[in-house]
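[job 0417] fold request received: Rhodanese domain-containing protein
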Amino acid sequence: MYLDVRTSEEFDAGHPTGAVNIPYLLRKGAEMSKNPKFLDEVSSKFEKEDEIVIGCQSGKRSLMAAADMQSAGFTRAIDVAGGYISWLENGLPTTIK
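[job 0417] inference complete; emitting structure tokens
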């Protein structure tokens, strides 16, 4: 399962086919802040033993999200190095909303 942790606007502009979107950071004006409900939202969509591939745009947010998820007991949460940019560069399937 692919978890896209980018903003909903980024997700709607294009994402890996079949991805679930739960933003790790939320935009508040010009600032970005951590989504306080991130782990609750993840828990509502995934089981702790699910294999979850986590991606963002370039790999920074997904690395933080993976660390938080692993600390919360999601032992099979894996960060995608390079994020969506790398996904596109490798010609993997995408969907535009």
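[job 0417] notes: The longest strand covers residues 25-28. The domain at 2-95 is CATH 3.40.250.10 (Oxidized Rhodanese; domain 1).
[job 0417] exit 0
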